[in-house]
């Protein structure tokens, strides 16, 4: 009732991806129940002790009760502390596994899955939204389990003394534990949805502000961006205030139910006392036990709010990784490293066709250059040949198997893609190469760096392969960054390397030298480039122009393609 069907399905999937340890979660429920049970027992024993002491019995008759009060008082704090330790250990471990499962799903999915999501929003989904799913364990599921156990214990104690008062207690517990959470969750849904959307917007704006502060200041838009951040923060605070109102109503309902339970116990108990069905000490116990029993149900209002937040976070995560079973990939070994495109039409998912149809074969030693004007679809074509997005028409196969049906590991054995914005991590040179192969040895790493022309550079580093690199390669030059990415490709042992603008942001001499080394290598090379110098070294050129796709050797295109010939002459 509180969650829509889509939210329930998404939340169940995300909770399953937490891969929680049932034993450890049961232990946290046990500790939580013992903590609240100690509070209930403390109220019951205290009530008995106060009422019995008023009768002036021998002190020895009160000693066990007095000791029990101290025991339950200490146990209440100790067990709640243990419950916090156990529950957070379970939740934090589950959040780590959920993130791992998300990254694994993204690694196997189409590139279009994240292409339309801003980096800040993506960060929010893998960060704050995952934290929200983890909070479901600690702030929603666990309190519900503990509240149920404590309510059962409380009703059992009162039922033993007075079934009539126990029935009244059950009714009041249902009001507090069902009506209150329903009001809290249902009333906060709209505000929470808007808050989550605005928090994603804030994350995207903040990341853009941090990364582009210099450019924004130069363009005079820094102040405008800061104002947008402040406005978004203000909206988030307003949404939180609106979501707190139903929570306040839930707290009021809980307090009202508690008051009714105590009042019912007094009214019914006095009647039973007059009838001789209950003595004064038992009446005191029946009146004071509900005061502790409602501690459990008081947590259900915030638990319902957390459930709403978690349901909406789960939908965002499932939207990111895709519906379960929609992208079943198969694992193949021993595929021949030959990529064949037949009548291929490419375009971004959901967008128009940008190139095709055309037919192309990529062999392990082929040197293929994809050239054309900016924005004409070169990177889209390369991404399609790498199996990251599905073609709009025709087919693209690897060793006869449809690329769109293969998992990333199967494709990576034959082809590795180095995107223009491939990331250099803030870690050692060695670990940056191990991104493609976890079992990479130091000798293999040195060989890969040598093949990429970084042998002398490695020798000059203070700690060799153990040298730390700055975040996103800020401590090395643009040429060294490109060569390090190339070394990463060599380390993969893939026979075909696909590169997107390897000469981008490099000076012309360095870019031409890097491309020349690629064309002279013994590997299969598919390169997207805007540089038209050195294309004589390639086997095949794919020229994307306004008139369509032209494919041929350099001499053929120079002779038969006026647009290509004009572009080459202009580049000179």
TrEMBL record:
It is found in: Cell membrane. The keyword Transferase does not apply. InterPro entries: AAA+_ATPase, ABC1_TM_dom, ABC1_TM_sf, ABC_CydC/D, ABC_transporter-like_ATP-bd, P-loop_NTPase, Type_1_exporter. One of its GO terms (cellular component) is plasma membrane. Its main location: membrane. Gene3D superfamilies: ABC transporter type 1, transmembrane domain (1.20.1560.10), P-loop containing nucleotide triphosphate hydrolases (3.40.50.300). The chain crosses the membrane at residues 25-50, 62-79, 140-161, 167-188, 247-270. It is a multi-pass membrane protein. Residues 26-309 form the ABC transmembrane type-1 domain. GO terms for biological process: cell redox homeostasis; glutathione transmembrane transport. Residues 339-571 form the ABC transporter domain. It holds the Pfam family ABC_membrane. Keywords: ATP-binding, Membrane, Nucleotide-binding, Transmembrane, Transmembrane helix. One of its GO terms (molecular function) is ATP hydrolysis activity. This is Thiol reductant ABC exporter subunit CydC. It comes from Flaviflexus salsibiostraticola. The lineage of its organism: Bacteria, Bacillati, Actinomycetota, Actinomycetes, Actinomycetales.
